[in-house]
Amino acid sequence: MFHLAYISKASHPMTRHELVNLLAKAKGKNERNGITGLLLHKNGRFVQVLEGEEDVVRPLFDLIRQDHRHTEVTILIEESIAQRQFFDWSMGFHDLDASDILGLYGNSKPLGKSLDIEGFKENPGACLTLLQFVRDLHLTRTTDQSRPA
What we know:
Elements: E1 2-10, H1 16-33, E2 36-42, E3 45-52, H2 54-66, E4 70-80, E5 92-95, H3 101-105, H4 117-122, H5 124-146
Parallel strand pairs: 2-5
Antiparallel strand pairs: 1-3, 1-4, 2-3
């Protein structure tokens, strides 16, 4: 198993409709190709982790890198992993612009007003920590919502 995390900058401000279309197309393609992961968006920045077989993840990333909807695509982490961290999500997504999650995550992390490309370059592990935090928060909320009141 392999994962690759990257960060990028939107080439233009993306509307909610554009984000939904992007996610719908990616989700279907990822399901067919055995890819899992999570995409975060904030203030025109993206951070994403992709998981799967390396010979599937790398060509997918090459296509993502060429996508005109973003620039400054920077790989933060690319490595073999023992198991998937986002196994339930063919295309998990969280829009941090519409969220209070940053308050929960804390001010000392390298985020600021946008996903901090330079901060993640200096500390790629912080990128995975944020992605895992969002995953865990979603799983907790899902579990809490399924419990009887």
